[in-house]
Task: structure prediction
Amino acid sequence: MQVIISTRGLTVSKTYKDAVSGKLAKLEPMLPKIVEMKVVLSKEKHRRTAAITVVAKKHTLRSEETAGDLAAAVDMAVDALLRQGKALKERLKDRKGRNARRLPRPMLPPVSPAPAMPEVAVTRVPLKPMSVAEAVEQLRTTGDECLLFANAGTDAVSVLYQRRGGGLGLIEPQ
Result:
């Protein structure tokens, strides 16, 4: 890993540069495969700015912080990069790859005959004749999972439902 420290409007000692490099070393476990780190320390009237860019193999993180003291600006910039690194690591961990392993579906236990019929909740709704487009609109406005309607085009009872993966499904009798 290469660390490039440059300054604008001020001079810093070798020991201070080593201290900044030590603070940047905290980022190495967070982001493997770091190629280089660029640090620009600058001085303006009553403020000091630390701009740090970390170039890793596939990602680039950047932070620029300003404070009255140069050490505080460097600390704040390193903390911001640590937060960015943690967020990046979380995103990468939560992302599913193309060939991610899929868990097998659990086998259902064998069904034994039920001793008594379970209680069923019955909802009675009027059967309105409508087109499929009208049914789609009504399903979206009500927010229900499914809609039973009389298809005006086929004069048959149809069911419109929301699919698990998104989209809608239509069940029509043959």
Summary: The chain has a mean pLDDT of 85. The first helix runs from residue 14 to 24.
